[in-house]
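G., the chain you wanted modeled:
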Amino acid sequence: MSNPTHALKLDARALREAHGIGYQDAVKILTDPDEARRNDLLAGVTEHGHTTYKAAFTWYEQLQPEQRTLCTRCGWTLGMICPECSKGCGCSTGCTGWRHNDYRGADDDETVSGWECPECGHGDGSDYDDPCDCDELDVCQECGHTDQDPGCVYHCECPAC
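Predicted structure as tokens:
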């Protein structure tokens, strides 16, 4: 069984060595009870160069609320929250809410490619997009062919004949 105190000491030392933050300041950040705030405070140290807990916390307090982390697992911020699913973040992969389409990652784009119409871009499979109007072609009531079909075997009066 691992010792959480030992792991905390190792993490604090790693932060001190990599980013020049004091050991006690690193411990304060790493033991912050709010996981999302802890994530933002760590970003203040690792990405924005703050070398004290006080400086990182002051930076955190100056963040706009929509820039603060909502979920440490998927990385969504409070400004990205989805009002249509229970978790409200990108972890709800089954939600078809408009926020999920807006903030879909590059990996997610591959899973839904081909849903939208190549001509007009509509019809992406969600309830929030306009349906594709390109499919409404002149269809022959007799044979079902359109004027884009290569030929009709029924020799009716449709444009494909």
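The longest helix spans residues 4-19.

Shout if anything looks off.
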